[in-house]
């Protein structure tokens, strides 16, 4: 570049900067603004990955924004009841919340498909649906009438089938069974003749121990060990057909989210995605050791659901999903999109995941069984 041209260009650039800073003064002030938000969750205090994940989200967001967003996190019941999170975010009592979409099924039935679908997608599949298959846009559409914006914030991976006080041999054994189980899986159990109870985490153990409920599912070994369910029920069943990859959510009041400058919205989205990935990693890393401890130290009776029982549940699940989808237009729209994406994943999975796990099946083993 000629020296004269260079001077001309840098001079012009300098002039632009000066003019720009004069025009952009309000934007500079906006950049200095600190957003102090409150987050409410459905989780008990200090509950690993779930509550600590919500706290991690707040901490990381503060780090990456240089302190421009500071979120004070309240566990379930500290500010609002555990199942009051969605309403508190929707009406603007707080700016954000953390929970799972199936907890608000009474308000947003279509939301259930974004937490977990019985015999549906695993963590890898549901994340692919959210980020690369149009799932997140549909979720935003489902929550839009409530002025709530959702983001995936965690994933449990495949859950356990649950803790039962009696052996489960056939589908008939669900008749009259009182079980704590949320979401679409709960509706399948109801269809099988069970009585479904929805309890927040803090009330499950006591209900099981006192026989108020006959069975409960919760998450997986990492959390189930900590909850002490092995002291209240004899049989620990697998696999978690009802929750093969449950998504945990962070939700934002629309007005609060939109009040953020674009770069802070981008930071919120990025940290939600990071926390989603971190959470699944924590579950995957922790579940094996916890399961081994349940078996060897606490002598838990680990049982696989019989194939015939699983097949019967699968039939009921298909019927249940169609019935639930018929209840409102958004549920139907989401269900059809989910089914289509699951087929797409299945085509690829038939030559990737499935044969791969078939080949190395003998490397999956539990000591002491
Ligand atoms: Ca569960």
Rough shape?
globular
Query: What string gives the helices and strands in order?
Result: HHEHEHEHHHEEEHEHEHEEHHEHHH
How many DSSP E strands?
Answer: 11
C-alpha termini separation: 75 Å
Helical element count? Answer: 15
Helix content: 40-55%
Mean pLDDT: 92
Strand content: 5-15%
CATH C-level:
Alpha Beta
- The CATH topology comes to D-Maltodextrin-Binding Protein, domain 2
CATH architect. name: 3-Layer(aba) Sandwich
Bound small molecules, by name, code or SMILES, are:
calcium ion
Describe the structure.
With 369 residues, the protein is of the alpha/beta class. The chain has a single domain, classed as D-Maltodextrin-Binding Protein, domain 2 (3-Layer(aba) Sandwich). 50% of the residues lie in helices and 14% in strands. It has 15 helices and eleven strands. The protein has helices at residues 3-23, 25-32, 51-64, 85-90, 112-115, 123-132, 135-143, 183-191, 201-209, 221-227, 254-259, 262-296, 307-325, 329-349, 353-359; strands spanning 35-41, 69-74, 96-99, 148-155, 162-164, 178-180, 195-197, 215-216, 235-238, 247-253, 301-304. The strands form two sheets. It has a six-stranded mixed β-sheet, with helices on one face. Strand 6 (178-180), helix 8 and strand 7 (195-197) form a beta-alpha-beta unit. Helix 7 packs antiparallel against helix 14 and helix 10 packs across helix 12 (262-296). It is globular and about 60 Å long. The N and C termini lie far apart (75 Å). Mean pLDDT is 92; it is low at 6-22.
């Amino acid at each position: 570049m000629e020296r004269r041209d260079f001077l001309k260009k840098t001079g012009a650039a300098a002039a632009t900067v000066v003019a720009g800073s004069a025009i952009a003064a309000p934007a500079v002030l906006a950049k200095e603004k600190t957003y102090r938000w409150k987050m409410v969750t459905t989780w008990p205090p200090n509950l690993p990955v779930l509550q600590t994940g919500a706290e991690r989200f707040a901490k990381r967001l503060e780090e990456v924004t240089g302190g421009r967003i500071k979120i004070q996190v309240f566990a379930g019941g500290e500010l609002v009841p555990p199942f009051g999170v969605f309403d508190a975010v929707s009406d603007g009592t707080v700016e954000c919340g953390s929970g799972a979409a199936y907890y608000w099924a009474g308000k947003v039935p279509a939301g259930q498909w974004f937490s977990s679908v019985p015999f549906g997608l695993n963590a890898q599949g549901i994340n692919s649906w959210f980020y690369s298959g149009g799932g997140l846009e549909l979720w935003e559409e489902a929550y839009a009438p409530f002025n709530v914006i959702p983001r995936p914030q965690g994933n449990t991976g495949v859950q356990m089938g649950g803790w039962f006080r009696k052996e489960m041999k056939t589908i008939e054994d669900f008749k009259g069974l009182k079980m704590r189980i949320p979401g679409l899986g709960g509706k399948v159990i109801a269809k099988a003749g069970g009585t479904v109870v929805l309890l927040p985490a803090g009330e499950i153990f006591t209900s099981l121990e006192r026989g108020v409920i006959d069975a409960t599912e919760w998450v997986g070994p990492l959390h189930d060990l900590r909850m002490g369910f092995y002291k209240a029920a004899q049989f620990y069943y697998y696999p978690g057909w009802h929750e093969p990859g449950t998504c945990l959510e962070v939700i934002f009041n629309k007005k609060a989210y939109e009040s953020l400058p674009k770069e802070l919205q981008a930071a919120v989205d990025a940290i939600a995605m990071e926390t989603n990935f971190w959470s699944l990693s924590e579950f995957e890393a922790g579940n094996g050791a916890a399961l081994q401890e349940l078996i060897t130290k606490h002598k838990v009776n680990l049982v696989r659901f019989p194939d015939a029982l699983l097949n019967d549940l699968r039939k009921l699940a298909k019927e249940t999903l169609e019935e639930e989808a018929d209840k409102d237009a958004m549920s139907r729209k989401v269900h059809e999109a989910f089914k289509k994406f699951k087929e797409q994943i299945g085509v690829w999975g038939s030559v990737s995941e499935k044969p791969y796990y078939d080949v190395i099946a003998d490397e999956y083993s539990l000591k002491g069984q």
